Amino acid sequence: MQIPSGLEAGVEGDLLKAEVRDLDFYYGGFHALKHVTMPVHDRKVTALIGPSGCGKSTLLRCFNRMHDLYPGNRYAGGGIVLHPDNTNLLAQEVDPIEVRMRISMVFQKPNPFPKSIYENVAYSLRVRGMRNKNELDDRVEAALKGAALWNEVSNRLNELGANLSGGQQQRLCIARALASDPEIILFDEPTSALDPIATASIEELVTELKENVTILIVTHNMQQAARISDFTAYMYLGEMVEFGITDQIFIKPTKKATEDYITGRFG
Amino acid sequence: MLQSADLDAIRAIIARAKRWDMFFALLGILSLMVGVLTFTALFVDMAIQGVPRLDFEFFTSFPSRRAANAGILSAWVGTVLVMLVTALAAVPLGVAAGVYLEEYAPKNWITDIIEINISNLAGIPSIVYGLLALGLFVYYFGFGQSILSAGLTLALLILPVIIVATREAIRAIPQSIHEGSYACGATTWQTVSDHILPYSSAGILTGVIIGMARAIGETAPIITIGALTFIAFLPPAPFAGDPPAGLFEWIFAPFTVMPIQMFNWTSRPEAAFTVNAAAAGFVLVFMTLAMNGLAIYVRYRLRKNIKW
Amino acid sequence: MSASASAPSVSLPIGKGISDRLRKKASRHVKERIIEFLLFCAAAFSVFVTVAIVWVLVKESWVFFETVPLSDFLFDTQWTPLFDDAHYGIMVLLSGTITSSAVALVVAIPLGTVIALYLSEFAGFKLREIAKPFLELLGGVPTIVYGYFALTFLTPILQKIYPDLPGFNLLSAGLVMGVMIIPYVASLSEDAMRAVPMSLREGSYAMGATRLQTALWVVTPAATSGIASAYILGISRAVGETMILAVAAGMQPKLTFNPTEPGATITSYIVQVALGDLPHGSIGYQTIFAAGLTLLLMTLAFNLLGYWLRKRFREVY
What residues of C are in contact with residue A84 (Cβ under 8 Å)? Predict the structure, then answer.
């Protein structure tokens, strides 16, 4: 196995939240991830970049076992070790539902449930069996504040989530993901369906969130990766080409392929 | 370059093609009119003959050998009770089957068999369900010619309708909603009960109403189980007797239903009974049209209101 | 939140340890499995229904065929099971079924196809929005009501044109049955036509074709198997229709292919027997199961053919 250069990159004293180790993944017969290895640093933002179809979303969706929902998907080797449990998330004995309770996700297109704003956020608490009204109220408020949405919706919590604007909907989905105190939040191109102003607010939010949460973000937008991430991974054709501190990747990538992609000569 | 003669020829061809277009559009409208006119004739004819017969007494009288005294009391009460049994049996079963096929079923031969089987059941003539009920419910299980036998027979008949409607309603829910729920850490059953069923309920309701409208008008399978056609008494009131056995006395009672009553009157030679048949038919058509109309309305509202 | 005391070093390969927090919980697993099993039972119940239908029909027919040889059943030209001189020639009932179905299809297939083409290729959005629910209403009218209509409205009109027509006849029943089937044929054909991708139509229009030319030369061929499966559904409906025939066609079994005569079909014979009080277990009682089995086999063949065609047409695009 070849460890891509820069894999051990990191700031002295950083903790690892998770490690992808030699991960292989198949969609039916298609080898979508090939021996992918990558660290995920605790309470840092890690960006996954690469051309369409390079496997970055596929990798992201391994973290909360979304692939389990569809037949024909196969984790074929290696794994993702979550710390401090030191457990392979992809192991047979691991309950995907437990994984998803600790690693939540924000999708490309805002997908609020057709329920009230309050119920949208409360849902991730309800699936954990939380029924106490006061506790729910507090947690929902905290999550909406965390997602910088509280001021806009505090007096209309019973309206449908779908009545919000696109950017607000996406922040509602972030609040939903935050409500359960996740350890990692996965963002799958969270701003690709939003206008520039909404995008800026989401980006700002992501930077604030990393105080408490580890963040993995897939993005098509290289400026975005440069702006908000601490680490960047460049993937191509299902392989991890280069991983490193974002500044280094963008200023002085070690691989020619990475440089070509970042400078826009390719992709 | 086109010569002007060619141009004329082409123009003539285009003009001819356009005339055919017009002709076909006319043909299309005429064909639709055949349906519209038949329906109008049927409805108006029945209304003219039957509506004058519709008075309070008609709804509160038992059938009688004297046409002028006969009414549909036992028929409409029977229809309501049979529909109650049908709904209680078919709705949970059909929705559960639809949910299983959309949300749980793995892609394997067992699922394939179930799917082919359901589409095949939808195509089996209703009278064959009647024969099934005669052999199975009436004699093998010994339910007799009762409300229970009739209700279960019609439940089997409309089961495919409800299953298909449930599946279509569920398929209309975007995948992103499923994923959003699972990403919150919901189990499959939590996803189904908190999201899938609530969001598809209007679509399922449409299917249930259409299925029930079909069941109300079904005649052949109920005749086949040997339902009596002359019933001058009411079954015991549901859930009113001494518990526990008395609560369910009504489901084993003999009965008649609206379409049977209408068939009975239609097959009499006297004109007075034909008028009764028209009146009963009018009530029956009114009921099924109202239900179908309700279903169409629910679906229309649903399409207008839903925002994903 | 996620604070751990020590930084784990990169340590390959992956250990087999599973933390308690992440391990599958038996309680949740069991509950989900029980629910899944119950839902599976509901879905599998439909298979049980089919098995029960086949079992009941075959069981009773078996007894019937122990008394009546299969060759008599298939080739005898008389159907008089309730007479002393009993004959059991299913051909007689089949002739009624075939004649009435043929009349119905002569109405339903051309009209249904034209309506489908019109709604799919010619009509505007508004007309389609009104016409489709209306067709559904037409299909939702109870068949007993259609039967009444055939007997008391259409037959007298037909008798004015053709005075020798008996009061009960296959023609009137077949015509009304045809109107009843139009919605099925039209609606399914239209679905198949609408499934033809817009790009095919645009290609045709770009060549200067008119709507009719596009409809006939591009859309119809592309939707053939879907349209065919709509026809087959129509046939299967016609064969299985009961009440219109029981009310308007008379119930005298007669080997005839003349629609202006009265006749019994497989379905109306079953109704006739069920209306009387034949003792359970008698040969007369068993004849309806033999007739029902014949009907089931016919519709089963049509359904499977239709299913196969639909499956094929889904794979085209």
Answer: 2, 4-5, 8
Question: Who among A97, A107, A113 is closest to B185 (CB)?
Answer: A97
Residue C116: partners with Cβ closer than 8 Å, 6 or more residues away: C185, C186, C187, C189, C190, C193, C227, C230
Residue A151 within a domain: no
**Secondary-structure class of domain C90-316 per CATH:** mainly alpha
User: How far, in Å, CA of A255 to CA of A241, rounded?
Assistant: 8
Cross-chain CB nearest to A21 (options C7, C14, C24): C14
ipTM of this predicted structure: 0.88
Q: Which two tokens stand for residue C250?
A: 């008379």
Among C10, C15, C25, the residue with its CB nearest the CB of A95 is C25
Q: Is there a contact between B259 and B218 (Cβ–Cβ < 8 Å)? A: yes
Q: Which residues partner with A88 through β-bridges?
A: A81
- For residue A94, the distance in angstroms to the closest alpha carbon of chain B comes to 13
Nearest residue in chain C measured CA to CA from B187: C32
Kindly determine whether residue C4 and residue A84, on different chains, have CB atoms separated by under 8 Å.
yes
- Chain C residues with CB-CB distance to B121 below 8 A: 46, 49-50
| Residue A250 domain flag | yes
Q: Of B174, B183, B190, B192, which is closest to residue A188 (Cα–Cα)?
A: B183
pLDDT per residue over A100-131, tens digit each?
Answer: 989 999 999 999 998 899 999 999 999 888 88
> What is the average pLDDT value for chain C, to the nearest integer?
86
The tens digit of pLDDT for each residue in B14-52 reads: 888 888 889 999 999 999 999 899 999 999 999 998 888
Q: Which helix (H) or strand (E) holds A117?
A: helix A117-126
Domain total in chain A: 1
Residue of B18, B113, B131 to mutate, testing the C interface (most C Cβ within 10 Å of its Cβ):
B131
Domain boundaries along the sequence of chain C:
26-67, 90-316
**Distance from chain centroid for Cα B231:** 25
The answer to whether residue A237 sits within a structural domain is yes
Q: Which two tokens stand for residue C264?
A: 């019994």
The answer to whether position A27 is within a domain reads yes
- Stretch A132-150: mean pLDDT, rounded? 93
Q: Which of A206, A170, A216, A218 is nearest to A52 (CA)?
A: A218
* Residue A144 clears pLDDT 60, i.e. is over it: yes
Give the CATH fold of the B54-305 domain.
MetI-like fold (1.10.3720)
Provide the number of CB pairs (under 8 Å) joining chain A to chain C: 73
Domain extent for A104: 16-110+182-262
What CATH number does residue A34 fall under? 3.40.50.300
Q: What is the pTM of this model?
A: 0.88
Nearest to A93 among C13, C15, C23 (CB): C23
B214-263 pLDDT, tens digit per residue, is 999 999 999 998 776 677 777 777 766 666 666 677 888 888 899 999 99
Taking each helix axis as running N to C, give the angle between helix C125-140 and helix B197-217, from 0 to 180 degrees, rounded to the nearest 10: 50
Looking at chain A, the whole-number percentage of residues with pLDDT higher than 90 is 62
